[in-house]
Amino acid sequence: MTINVQIQGNVARIDMYGRFDFQVHREFKDAYTPLLDNSAVREIEIEMSRVDYLDSSALGMLMLLNERAKAAGKPVTLLNTSGVVSQVLGVANFSKIFNIKQTGS
Predict the structure, then answer these.
(1) CATH code of 91's domain
(2) pLDDT score of 48 more than 70
(3) Which of 2, 29, 83, 96 could form a disulfide with 17 if both were Cys (CB 3.0 to 4.6 A apart)?
């Protein structure tokens, strides 16, 4: 898994590539924690178009991020999910917890 963070204006985007599973929990937390502390960041987007797998621990990591972001007043949006990732998020009813968008980028 590769994780890159970009901040444009008041929106931070975490781009993820590969398998999103327990092996990347530290890297994922290290990517989002500074965004929660950054007062200029008002919204966090997770670009998932290149995530080809996620497991239950990834769902837990997303939930933890969402809880912490909510406490900081920063909405989290999941972008461009597809295939197995969309199916897993659908089964877990993540559309009731997260804004999930298809942006075409």
Answers:
(1) 3.30.750.24
(2) yes
(3) 2
